[in-house]
Amino acid sequence: AQKITQTQPGMFVQEKEAVTLDCTYDTSDPSYGLFWYKQPSSGEMIFLIYQGSYDQQNATEGRYSLNFQKARKSANLVISASQLGDSAMYFCAMRAAGGTSYGKLTFGQGTILTVHP
Amino acid sequence: GAVVSQHPSWVICKSGTSVKIECRSLDFQATTMFWYRQFPKQSLMLMATSNEGSKATYEQGVEKDKFLINHASLTLSTLTVTSAHPEDSSFYICSADSGTNYYEQYFGPGTRLTVT
Q: What is the pLDDT of residue A100?
């Protein structure tokens, strides 16, 4: 079974500063994908970044980077130069690449990020 | 880019009635669609996986007779909440898998259901 843990129910950051959102995972699958999604108050799920379990380099997408530490089973999201529009709920998720769980996304509990001006 | 729509975006219904929610992939064919349920300030919980032309696979604890899922075509999946009760009030989100890259899963905007 797969499990995603986000231990920060809420985080606060000052505008223009960087913030790290924590995510740890557990799986017995050798191949998997890790995702981060942003969910603003409107409810839509916005894809931010993806990291494959075999990727050697950490993924980056603009102001978002994923700090992937495979041995520690962690996949933290780093948002640089925070903006007021970054205030939202953030979910870490994992997707199995094979087996009976193929394709299914397992989500963490989420972290509510608030950016202060 | 790949777009998934949901209809309606919000619905209010009376207890005991049924409600149908549609999920459409607008510019790609979805081999698999997923239905999630989300309560306020909580995580998304997968309800079921549907593949075109076959029966949906429900997650443990999800009542298949209450949440009817039909994946009639490669662009349309429907979720029908039968005999809705106030505890069924929730945010329902679908996602669609194009099947080309396993990491590409596209989410619909969600449907907010309120049962009175």
A: 62
